Amino acid sequence: MEIKRPLYLDRLVSRIENGMIKIVTGMRRSGKSYLLNNLFSNYLLQQGVGQNNIIKIPLDNFEFRKLRDGEVLYNDIKNKLDPSSTNYIIIDEVQMATDFVDVLNGLNSLPNADIYVSGSNAKLLSKDIVTEFRGRGDEVKIYPLNFGEYWSVYEGNKFRALDEFMLFGSLPQILERKDEEQKTHFLKNLLSETYIKDISERYHPKNESDLTELISVLASSVGSLTNPTNLMNTFNSIKGAKMSYNTIKTYVDYFIDSFIVEKSKRFDIKGKKFIDTPNKYYFSDLGIRNAVLNFTQMDLGHQLENVIYNELRTRGYNVDVGMVSVRSNDSSGKMLRTNLEVDFICNLGNRRYYIQSTYQLIDESKVKQEEKSLKHISDSFKKIIITHDDIHIRRTESGITYLNIYEFLLNPASLEL
Question: Strand 335-348 relative to strand 318-329: parallel, antiparallel, unpaired?
Answer without folding.
Answer: antiparallel
